[in-house]
Structure formats: structure tokens, C-alpha cells
Amino acid sequence: MLAIRLMRMGAKKRPAYRIVVKEKLSKRDGAYLENIGTYDPTREPAAVNLNMERAQYWISKGAQPTATVSRLIKSSAKAQAVEPQPQPTE
Fold first, then answer.
1. Could you say which architecture CATH assigns to the domain 2-78?
2. What are the residues whose beta carbons fall under 8 Å from the beta carbon of 18, sequence distance 6 or more?
């Protein structure tokens, strides 16, 4: 079974995370299948960089996001919906 979860990176007392797809039973910082984004909670506001296409692809293949990752996916989708779409120029 696959999971979409956070993988801790960064220095001591300065966490930064990768959002990765991996086997559910593997270690938190073990091997992963694909890196689909990053999350930096130390910034104000927290910086989330997520490839929504790949996240939706893996969810459709049966990967289950953790509670934190599902919250990040929802907030990222909401932020992308609020951004103004570029208007075509003639």
C-alpha cells in the first residue's frame, strides 16, 4: 500500500519537509518512489510547493495521504483556485 507523507529534511531545530510517495510501512526518511513537493513550516506563512497533478495521479492509483498532507493538499488547491488566471492578450 502506498502513502503520501512528509519526509523530514533540514537542520536540527530547523525542519523542512519533502512531500513524497512511498510504501506505507517504510521508514519516515527511507527510500521513496517520487518527490511531489516541499513544505517549510518555519516561514511566515508556511511555504508549500506541491505538484497537484502528481498528487492527484497517486491518489487515483490508491495512495493514501496522511492527515497533515491531506490538509496541505486542500490548502494548496484552495490557493491555486484563488490565484487570478492570466488573461489572453490579443
1. 2-Layer Sandwich (3.30)
2. 6, 7, 9, 32, 35, 37, 38, 39
